[in-house]
Specification:
The complex is a heterotrimer of chains A (about 150), B (about 675) and C (about 180). With about 150 residues, chain A is mainly alpha-helical. Helix content of chain A is about 65%, strand content about 0%. Chain A contains 7 helices and 1 strand; from the N terminus they run ααβααααα. Chain C has helices spanning about 5-20, 75-90, 100-110, 125-130, 160-175, and strands at about 40-45, 50-55, 65-70, 95-100, 120, 140, 150-155. Classes of the chains: A mainly alpha (about 150), B alpha+beta (about 675), C alpha/beta (about 180). Strand 1 of chain A pairs antiparallel with strand 1 of chain B.
Chain lengths: ~150, ~675, ~180
């Protein structure tokens, strides 16, 4: 019914997806977001318009079409360009500190907080007033109340 | 002539800054009132001089004076006036002048709004700010002079980077710098307290409004940066964990932790040394950000043109200021008293747990940002650390903090009981959990992260409601309206700010969970459907701008057959730098953004087009705005207004002063 | 007192790293292929498109592989150095014309001189990707067994040639 009222919409045809093969493109997107454009100022392979980025995307598409796994594709690029091409740092001896660091920090912070709180509780509850001191405290408090 | 006046004004400002940075601090140390009194007029004088310099540079831009090197490098005769003026901070030298100008604004604000502070304190605060300005003025006058002449003058300028020719350029840097520089006030308060040896709850009370206002500006500044990237860069992203973005996020995290820590110090006098350390940290991160952006040490789209000489200057400045502060801290902080006691399970304990989590998050961002540099410096190879790392690490650290956000305000000061809290909050938890499960089920798509995000957001809102209900029940004032008014503005500010966080989390969760994207080739007349909307491409036409020529596409968007909007994305070519830019068309809405971006022209008048449907994305920046509003509301609380008003009524008699208590 | 110095200690370490960072170039990518076998290629020659130049042909000698293009500014800067080296005859230089057009490449060599024994044509840039090339010019030193021994990123300079490359070449030639 609506199609009759809006003939222009009715006769319009659907745009075709840009990519030749949408499944390959979907996999490319997932991979390309984690890969670095090597010649850009910090951009992903997905977002960059640089010629090398286009070449690399083409290579990755071909590898996907050849049914290579994600790991194989990543290995291909890392063999040639090093770990720099990955935005997700690989788990290696040199990056252990990087991946564990945040949780170590949390652990150290939490421990520090608990220790600090325990220490301060001890310091503050250790004070017991002697009789003379208690008398002095009451004296001071009553003085303060009487002030105009 | 005018640029020379500007240059001399900066030289004079440096002289004033040296005086401001030395005499008052010395005067405070020896108790000399006349030396201490130098601080206020010096700060105001510096403001006037830097204002003059700033206006001179603005004049040079407005009048297209291409005999000034900086103007020639960042402007052009065809650039419209508002962008010519925004170009003042378009590159390194001018942005430093903006930094300095904003520092002088904060200095003059402190000089006016500090009459309730003891003279020695004010003298030290302005003195420390003076020392900071010495550093920046010296930096400008030695290696980054915005007034340097170009002889012979250029015939025309190299133009402002087209990416920056945008309204965002007019507001984002000033807002951001107001935040960055604003933390220098909290820093100066901290140093002043350390120098004076009087570190008490009063110091925290004085410091809080300044910290909160700086934090509000920082929130707006960072949010604007994100929003601007979203609509400017053409691929719909809004946060990339880029080193420069992180450089602005880290001071924000530190500032948030500081605000919460100052609450404990103010109310209970505890953790003074920690608050001082956080204040030093927040400003140090601002300075570190300045270094990272300008030194070339890290690669970023947002970085200024780099020069190792400049990097070295900032690094030395950084080392002196922060190193000095931390040595002062190590020396003086141990003597600071402990303040009131409290149990581990208490509001104070939870605020401090919040601090631990925020600082751990902050540390992680810093670690991730600097790690490639660490490895490279140790010759252990080159790696990249990007969004996959930060997303993986940041979320587990922030999630407990959000949970605490719900429990903290309900916990009693000094000692609270976990079982009692659990009982009070069980409905809130139940409701949040139910919503977190129901919504994705209704929307037809579920991942654990979507549910987690919804759980956190609704947890915040539900716990706020529980807390609000309890307080209103306990409040005096008869009617609901009456009771609402009795609750202090600081409380409402907190409520609003926390709601802002909930809105932010909602926005992020919904967008990341439910956004859809399509890359299509569109001939004239073809349609594409996305998220329930139909986009019809009606061709492009040439459009001439002031300094560019563009192909402007027309897209009619309809939903269920009814036309909703028309969108005009552009592909611009800017003449001077011969750069092509994509100007995406965005149709913003409360519940979704529609985003259309032209790719490349294909034969036959067709184009490759990228379409996005992004639900709830504006809640991200809306949430940040609400956070900032909450901060402003909190600062307008009675106790601060009374403190400022009291200065007018201040009687000369010392005894009367002694009687005044701050509520 | 000591635990209050921890923030200062951490800060000094960070500043140390930042200071070192000022001397580094974060955009320079050292090649992970150094010490590994040079990727094989088999490409048409620039001056004689019917013939093929293959990396296998070059086993048994030490050689330089120079990636260049007629559209590359830095290549002009380093070309005199290459010409000079070719005249000395110490080590053969093989060119890889990267993502270029034949007529422009030929014209460019005519104008600026041809130091190359043979020029291979890598028009789609695939061999470049295999070698981990991310910009031009880049030069590789490859030994008799076909193993990459050194990668020069950016234009060659006389001093780099004298101090690093030629000594390495001589050492490899004596093996």
């Amino acid at each position: 019914m609506l199609m009759l009222l809006f003939p222009s919409l009715a006769s319009a045809y659907e745009a075709q997806p840009l990519a030749a093969n949408p499944q390959v493109e979907a996999r490319l997107k997932v991979l390309a977001v984690e890969l670095r454009c090597l010649v850009c100022q910090n951009q992903t392979l997905a977002d960059s318009n640089a010629p090398l980025a286009e070449d690399l995307r083409r290579e990755v598409r071909e590898m996907i079409a050849k049914d290579m796994s994600d790991k194989e594709i990543i290995d291909f690029l890392v063999t040639r360009y090093g770990d720099f091409v990955l935005y997700r740092p690989p788990w290696k001896p040199t990056t252990t500190l990087l991946w564990l660091g945040p949780f170590l920090l949390l652990g150290v912070g939490a421990t520090g907080l608990v220790v600090a709180l325990r220490r301060r509780q001890k310091k503050l509850t250790d004070v017991t007033l002697s009789e003379a001191e208690r008398h002095r405290v009451e004296q001071l408090l009553s003085e303060g109340a009487n002030r105009p | 002539m005018i640029p020379e006046i500007g240059h001399y004004a900066l030289i004079l400002a440096l002289c004033v800054a040296v005086v401001q940075g030395s005499l008052p601090i010395y005067g405070a140390a020896v108790g000399n009132a006349s030396l201490m009194a130098v601080a206020k007029p010096a700060a105001r004088g510096q403001f006037l001089l830097v204002l003059l310099a700033f206006c001179c540079l603005g004049y040079a831009f407005a009048e297209k004076d291409f005999s000034v090197l900086y103007v020639a490098a960042t402007s052009n005769s065809q650039l419209p006036l508002h962008y010519r003026l925004a170009a003042i901070w378009g590159a390194h030298e001018g942005s430093l002048l903006l930094w300095m100008f904003i520092l002088s604004i904060w200095m003059v604000a402190v000089s006016f709004f500090s009459t309730h502070l003891p003279d020695a304190m004010r003298a030290r605060i302005l003195g420390v700010m003076g020392l900071v300005s010495v550093g920046f003025l010296l930096f400008m006058l030695t290696v980054s002079n915005p007034f340097e002449r170009l002889i012979p003058a250029a015939l025309d300028g190299r133009d402002l980077n087209p990416l920056l020719q945008d309204p965002g350029m007019v507001i984002h840097p000033p807002m951001l710098y107001m935040g960055y520089v604003g933390f220098s006030v909290a820093f100066s308060f901290a140093i002043a307290a350390l120098l004076g040896g009087t570190l008490d709850a009063a110091w925290a009370r004085w410091s809080r409004p300044w910290t909160t206002v700086a934090w509000c500006f920082m929130t707006v500044g960072v949010a604007m940066g994100s929003g601007w990237a979203y609509y400017e860069l053409g691929w719909g992203g809004w946060w990339f964990w880029d080193p420069v973005e992180n450089a602005s996020f880290m001071p924000w995290l530190a500032g948030t932790a500081l605000m919460h820590s100052l609450a404990v110090t103010d109310k209970r006098g505890g953790f003074k040394a920690w608050s001082v350390l956080l204040a030093i940290m927040a400003f140090s991160l601002s300075l570190l950000g300045t270094f990272l952006v300008r030194s070339g040490v890290l690669t970023s789209v947002h970085a200024f043109a780099t020069d190792p000489k400049r990097g070295l200057f900032i690094l030395v400045f950084l080392a002196v200021v922060i190193g000095g502060s931390l040595v002062l801290y190590a020396w003086r902080a141990p003597r600071v008293g402990l303040g009131g006691g409290f149990a581990m399970i208490s509001r104070e304990g939870m605020l401090l747990a919040n601090n631990v989590l925020l600082v751990a998050a902050l540390g992680s961002v810093l670690l991730g940002t600097l790690y490639p540099l660490f490895l490279d410096a140790l010759d252990l190879g080159k790696i990249s650390v990007g969004p996959p790392y930060f997303d993986t690490v940041f979320l587990p650290l922030m999630t407990p903090a959000i949970f605490l956000m719900g429990i903290g305000p309900l916990a009693q000061w000094k000692q609270a009981s976990l079982p009692a809290l659990a009982i009070r909050l069980r409905w809130a938890f139940g409701v949040s959990l139910a919503t977190a499960v129901a919504v994705p089920w209704l929307m037809g798509q579920w991942t654990p992260l979507i549910s987690l995000g919804l759980l956190l957001a609704f947890w915040i809102l539900a716990t706020i409601l529980v807390d609000l209900r309890e307080r209103l029940l306990q409040a005096e004032g008869g009617s609901i309206g009456g009771r609402v008014v009795t609750l202090p503005r600081a409380y409402w500010g907190m409520v609003l700010a926390h709601c802002g966080v909930a809105l932010f989390i909602l926005g992020v969760t919904m967008v990341k969970g439910f956004e859809v994207e399509q890359d299509v080739r569109m001939n004239v007349g073809e349609t594409a459907t996305l998220g329930g909307y139909t986009f019809r491409f009606d061709g492009t036409q040439q459009v001439n701008g002031p300094n560019y020529v563009a192909a402007r596409g027309t897209f009619h968007v309809s939903q269920d057959g009814r036309e909703v909007t028309v969108m005009y994305p552009e592909k611009r070519r800017y003449f001077v730098q011969n750069q092509t830019m994509t100007e995406a068309a965005i149709s913003p809405g409360l519940l979704r953004d529609l985003y259309v971006s032209l790719g490349e022209p294909i034969e036959g008048g067709a184009w490759s087009v990228r379409l996005y449907h992004k639900p709830f994305i504006d809640w991200i920046w809306g949430g940040c705005l609400v956070m900032a509003l909450g901060g402003i509301l909190a600062v307008s609380d009675r106790r601060y207004r009374l403190a400022w008003r009291r200065k007018e009524a201040a009687a000369p008699a010392a005894t009367q002063m002694a009687r005044q208590t701050v509520s | 007192m000591s635990r209050f110095l921890i923030p200062f200690g951490i800060f000094i370490v960070v500043v140390g790293f930042l200071a070192v960072g000022l001397t580094l170039n974060p955009r320079e990518l050292p090649s992970p292929l150094v010490g590994k076998a040079a990727p094989d290629f088999s490409l048409p020659q620039l001056h004689d498109p019917g013939k093929v130049i293959s990396s296998n042909d070059l086993k048994g000698k030490v050689w330089l592989l120079n990636f260049w293009a007629s559209w590359c500014g830095g290549c002009k800067d380093e070309h005199p150095v290459l010409n000079h080296l070719a005249q000395s005859g110490e080590v053969p230089i093989y060119g890889m014309d990267y993502k270029d057009r034949r007529e422009e490449a030929l014209a460019w060599l005519k104008e600026w001189g041809n130091p190359y024994s043979i020029v291979a044509v890598d028009e789609p840039g695939r061999v470049g990707i295999n070698y981990g090339v991310y910009g031009v010019p880049e030069t590789y030193v490859i030994d008799k067994a076909g193993v990459i021994r050194y990668k020069q990123i950016g234009p060659l300079r006389e001093d780099i040639l004298e101090k690093k490359i030629l000594p390495l070449v001589r050492e490899l030639q004596n093996q």
